[in-house]
Specification:
By secondary structure, the chain is α/β, with parallel strands linked by helices. It contains 9 helices and 12 strands.
Amino acid sequence: MIESTPDPFVLRARDVSVTYPGEIRALTGVSVDVSRGQFVALIGPNGSGKSTLLRCLAGLMQPTFGSVSIDGIEAQALSPLDRARRVAYVQALSDTPEFMTAREFTLLGRYAHLTGWRLFSKQDRDIATDALHRAGALDFADRFMTELSSGERQRVMLARALAQESPILLLDEPTSALDARHQILTSALIRKFCEREGKTVVAATHDLNLASQFADRLYLLKSGSVAASGNAQETLTKECLESVYDIGVAHGYFAETIDGAPRPWVLPMAPREI
């Protein structure tokens, strides 16, 4: 394993640009700093580059220009196994394997800790069971993945990331398929991972109000660039949101917040003519 170098930021992106085939520019000069134990939200319209940025931060995609470091190490210098031990990446909902239970799927998170020909141990299975419990998925652990609702599958995917026991979690739309209650519970759970377990979380989300209530820092992307960054009050301004999303918004502040800091709520307004 490559040794880490002292760095106040566990994840850093410096002037990252990504161009897809056909000269499609996904990111342009994006810089992101993520401190240990921080919950960072990536927000922005469809096609703004959130998922691409997550993949770059995970070391799964090499930027066309710029650099990404994990624990002070160039992401591309880490082996896939070493990256997996440092970073757990959960992509947006996708096809799940048939004839695999939620428990078996969660156990796949332990592959990062297998060496040689070692099979899953009792400890691995206990860790997977605990991860299912923490993600609120233990009640359906022995059902096939194809039998689960999209929201239930989403909780199992979070459980697999927890079973990986990586200190950094990168989550792509972790609450998109959840009902209102489970959106709040899952967001609160993610924040608890940061506060009580010291995990670092970066999550891409379309839910501005969840990001406002639970994230420590937000990056608002527009057309592959950072339009605003900072805490919720600094980022979710009426002027900035209306400019980025090209729609009117109602804007106010939650009466109570998890840390007493001013955190705005946002309500998109329907135009008079559509």
